[in-house]
């Protein structure tokens, strides 16, 4: 009975320490790459990002549950989980403004496709689309095209939508989406342990340490 109570207390601390909503675990000894898990304790969701120095990225997202001493990750349709921000205005703007940013908040050149028509950025890397182009489509789906890859973005409430900002995985040269599978990670104190899926070490397992150390003993 006592061990169950300890595990319950440990679970509360590891995913709610100091009121944190996001916990970041980084792989140790990652000099030429970054391998991180981001856990949102409010929504019970996660993101995984493994980026190499040659511009490649392995990206996954989904939901998680904690079972005993394991974190069970359920990877969803990660290729649809782009980091998008939608801004609405009270006045009905005639134009939709679209921005694209890399990870360092630099604007990048990307173009948009809708109903076989292409929309290109101006010299300031901004795309402006007249809303009349969407006609009576209340929630049109546009295609974002970057480095030969296409991403679908649904524009909900297009009549009130003013600005669309996209930042995240599309700045990498090659993107490998981790989609629709389950992965288990073992955790102990302030670290989680995983198999080495990406051959980053000579060992079969790697350790990830939390940016905010947690010193709880079972």
Instruction: State the order of secondary-structure elements, H for helix, E for strand.
Output: HEEEEEEEEEEEEEEEEE
**Content of β-strand:** over 45%
Overall pLDDT level? 79
Separation, N- and C-terminal Cα atoms: 13 Å
Number of strands: 17
Largest sheet: 8 strands, antiparallel, barrel
Q: What's the overall geometry?
A: elongated
Number of DSSP helical runs: 1
CATH class of the largest domain: Mainly Beta
Helix share bin: under 10%
Examine the secondary-structure arrangement and name the CATH architecture of the largest domain. Beta Barrel
Low-confidence stretches: 1-19, 214-218
Oligomer: single chain
Strand order of the largest sheet: 1-2-3-4-5-15-16-17
Q: What would you report as the Rg, rounded to the nearest angstrom?
A: 21 Å
CATH topology of the largest domain: Lipocalin
Give a quick precis of the structure.
The chain is mainly beta.
Features:
218 residues; mainly beta; Lipocalin; Immunoglobulin-like; 2 domains; 8-stranded antiparallel β-barrel; 4-stranded mixed β-sheet; 1 helix; 49% strand; disordered N terminus
SSE layout and pairings?
Blueprint: H1 2-16, E1 22-27, E2 33-40, E3 45-52, E4 56-67, E5 70-75, E6 84-88, E7 95-101, E8 111-114, E9 117-119, E10 127-130, E11 141-146, E12 149-154, E13 161-167, E14 174-178, E15 181-188, E16 191-195, E17 205-210
Parallel strand pairs: 4-14, 7-13
Antiparallel strand pairs: 1-2, 1-17, 2-3, 3-4, 4-5, 5-15, 6-13, 7-10, 8-9, 8-11, 11-12, 15-16, 16-17
């Amino acid at each position: 009975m006592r061990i169950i109570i300890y595990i319950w207390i440990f679970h509360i601390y590891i995913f709610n320490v100091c009121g944190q909503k996001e916990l970041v675990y980084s792989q140790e000894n990652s000099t030429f790459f970054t391998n991180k898990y981001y856990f949102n304790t409010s929504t019970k969701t996660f993101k995984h990002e493994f980026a190499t120095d040659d511009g490649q990225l392995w990206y996954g997202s989904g939901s998680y549950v904690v079972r005993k001493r394991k974190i069970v990750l359920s990877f969803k349709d990660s290729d649809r989980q782009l980091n998008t921000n939608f801004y609405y205005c009270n006045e009905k703007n005639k134009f939709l403004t679209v921005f694209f940013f890399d990870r360092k908040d630099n604007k990048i050149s990307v173009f948009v496709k809708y109903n076989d028509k292409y929309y290109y950025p101006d010299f300031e890397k901004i795309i402006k689309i007249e809303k009349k182009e969407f006609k009576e489509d209340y929630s049109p789906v546009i295609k974002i095209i970057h480095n030969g890859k296409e991403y679908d973005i649904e524009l909900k409430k297009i009549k009130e939508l003013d600005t669309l900002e996209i930042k995240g995985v599309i700045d990498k040269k090659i993107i490998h989406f981790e989609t629709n599978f389950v992965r288990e990670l073992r955790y102990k104190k302030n670290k989680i342990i995983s198999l080495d899926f990406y051959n980053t070490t000579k060992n079969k397992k790697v350790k990830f340490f939390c940016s905010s150390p947690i010193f709880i003993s079972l």
